[in-house]
Amino acid sequence: MVMPGMTIESLKKHKSLIPLFACLGVGMVGAAFYLARLAIKSPEVTWHPKDNQEPWEAYKQKTYKFYSTSSDPPVSPAPKY
């Protein structure tokens, strides 16, 4: 037996479930996109540790923020050893 609201035919009877599924779908896609962005763009993550021993060094001249409103040159938060 299928739960109510899980088929197209039952969604026609329970129209109030359509926005719930839409919001849930948008939230899941947004969360997956953000996790993929963190895995690809984050300086703390390295996919090839032998090729790139210190991946954070690439961010010395890059902006680390997700969204920046300032046009000032980026300042690296990485410590200088």
UniProtKB/TrEMBL annotation:
InterPro entries assigned: B12D
Pfam families hit by this protein: B12D
PANTHER family xref list: GEO09626P1 (PTHR14256:SF1), NADH-UBIQUINONE OXIDOREDUCTASE MLRQ SUBUNIT (PTHR14256)
Protein name: Cytochrome c oxidase subunit NDUFA4
Organism of origin: Sipha flava
